[in-house]
Design a protein that fits this description.
Helix 3 runs antiparallel to helix 4 and helix 7 packs across helix 8. It is built from 9 helices and 13 strands. The longest helix is centred in the N-terminal third of the chain and has 18 residues. Strands 1, 2, 3, 5, 6, 7, 8, 10 and 11 form a 9-stranded antiparallel β-sheet that branches. A two-stranded parallel sheet has the order 4-9. It starts with a helix and ends with a strand. 29% of the residues lie in helices and 18% in strands. The chain has a domain of 210 residues. By secondary structure, the protein is an alpha+beta fold. Cysteine protease that plays a key role in autophagy by mediating both proteolytic activation and delipidation of ATG8 family proteins. This is Cysteine protease. It holds the Pfam family Peptidase_C54. InterPro entries: ATG4_LIR, Papain-like_cys_pep_sf, Peptidase_C54, Peptidase_C54_cat.
Length: 336
C-alpha cells in the first residue's frame, strides 16, 4: 500500500516547479489577500507561506469510529484541504492576517488553541475524525474520498459550532469553463482563504498576477502528533518548511471550492459588491447571489453538536452563532 501511495505522490509533482526556481521578475504575488513583490521580498513571501497551517495525510491515529481506518492516506486529502481552509479563517479571526510564525519560537495561546482543534483525535472538534463522521450525513462513508462541494458542506456545519462572529464564505464550482473566473476571483477578491480542487495538488493557498498558483500539498503521509503533557503541540510538522511548489492554473481541475474570510459584516457586504461587479456581470455565471433562501430549497436545519465532548469546546456555541447570523437577511450563495 505504501509503495502505491508513494508512486501516486510522485505522479502529483510531475507538472509542478518549486517557488525558489521562479524567475526574478517584478511581478506581485498574492498570498491569501496579501501581496509581495517577488523580486525584493522573496524571504517575506516564503515566511508568509510557511506560517500557514499545513495539514497532510497522517497515520497511526486512533481508528475513526473505533473500528475504522487509522490513516487517511489515499482518501483524506480533500478533508485536509478543508482543515487548512478553516484553520486559516480561525487564524485570521483570532490572530489577524499579519500574524507570523517562526520555528522554535513560543506562540500565543490562541495559536495553540486553534492547532489543538485539528489534532487527529475524536475529541478534537475539527479533527479528521469529526470531519469524516460529519460527511456521513452528506452521503459519504468513512474512508471515502470527498469532493470539494462535500467538504464545503461539512465546513459549513462545523463552522456553526464556533462562537466567532465572522463569516467564512465557501463557493463550490464544477464547470469546465470557469478557469478564467477562478483567476479573476483570486485577483479581485482580497479575502481568499484557500482553494481545494479535484485534481491534485489540492490546496492552493496563493495566486499571482501571472497564470501560476502556489500551493501547499496534502499528499504527504506523516505520523500522528498528539498534544504534550503541558497541553502544547510540537508544531514542526504542521508547517511546510521546504520551498513551496507552484503550478500553471490550467492544470487545476475546475471542480473547486473557493474560501473567503469576512471578519465583519461590512467585509461580507464588500465581498458581495465585488462579486456582483466583477464576477457576476458575465452571461455565463459560475454561481449567483440571492437575497433570501430560495423557497424551493429545503429548510436550513442546523446540525447537531458532536456526541463526544470535544477539545476546543470554548469555540462551540451553535445557538449564539445562529442568532448572530441572520440567515434570512444575508445573501445566499448558490453554486452551479
Amino acid at each position: 500500500m505504501e509503495s502505491v501511495l508513494s508512486k501516486y505522490e510522485n505522479q502529483i509533482t510531475i507538472f509542478t516547479e518549486y517557488l525558489e526556481e521562479y524567475p526574478n521578475t517584478d511581478e506581485l504575488v498574492w498570498i491569501l489577500g496579501k501581496q509581495h513583490l517577488l523580486k525584493t521580498e522573496k524571504s517575506k513571501l516564503l515566511s508568509d507561506i510557511s506560517a500557514r497551517l499545513w495539514f497532510t495525510y497522517r497515520r497511526k491515529f486512533s481508528p475513526i469510529g473505533g473500528t475504522g481506518p487509522s490513516s487517511d492516506a489515499g482518501w483524506g486529502c480533500m478533508l485536509r484541504c478543508g482543515q487548512m481552509m478553516l484553520a486559516q479563517a480561525l487564524i485570521c479571526r483570532h490572530l489577524g492576517r499579519d500574524w507570523s510564525w517562526e520555528k522554535q519560537k513560543e506562540q500565543p495561546k490562541e495559536y495553540q488553541r486553534i492547532l489543538q482543534c485539528f489534532l487527529d483525535r475524536k475529541d478534537c472538534c475539527y479533527s479528521i475524525h469529526q470531519m469524516a463522521q460529519m460527511g456521513v450525513g452528506e452521503g459519504k462513508s468513512i474512508g471515502e474520498w470527498f469532493g470539494p462541494n462535500t467538504v464545503a458542506q461539512v465546513l459549513k456545519k462545523l463552522a456553526l459550532f464556533d462562537e466567532w462572529n465572522s463569516l467564512a464564505v465557501y463557493v463550490s464550482m464544477d464547470n469546465t469553463v470557469v478557469i478564467e473566473d477562478i483567476k479573476k476571483m483570486c485577483r479581485v477578491l482580497p479575502l481568499s482563504a484557500d482553494t481545494p480542487g479535484d485534481r491534485p495538488p489540492d490546496s492552493l493557498t496563493a495566486s499571482n498576477q501571472s497564470d501560476e498558483l502556489i500551493f501547499l500539498d496534502p499528499h504527504t503521509t506523516q505520523t500522528f502528533v498528539d498534544a504534550e503533557e503541558n497541553g502544547t503541540v510540537n508544531d514542526q510538522t504542521f508547517h511546510c518548511l521546504q520551498s513551496p511548489q507552484r503550478m500553471n492554473i490550467l492544470n487545476l481541475d475546475p471542480s473547486v471550492a473557493l474560501g473567503f474570510f469576512c471578519k465583519e459584516e461590512k467585509d461580507f457586504d464588500n465581498w458581495c459588491s465585488l462579486v456582483q461587479k466583477e464576477i457576476l456581470k458575465e452571461n455565463l455565471r459560475m454561481f449567483e447571489l440571492v437575497q433570501k433562501h430560495p423557497s424551493h430549497w429545503p429548510p436550513f436545519i442546523p446540525p447537531a453538536k458532536p456526541e463526544v465532548t470535544t477539545t476546543g469546546a470554548e469555540f462551540i456555541d451553535s445557538n449564539e452563532q445562529l442568532e448572530e447570523l441572520d440567515l434570512e437577511e444575508d445573501f445566499e450563495i448558490l453554486s452551479v
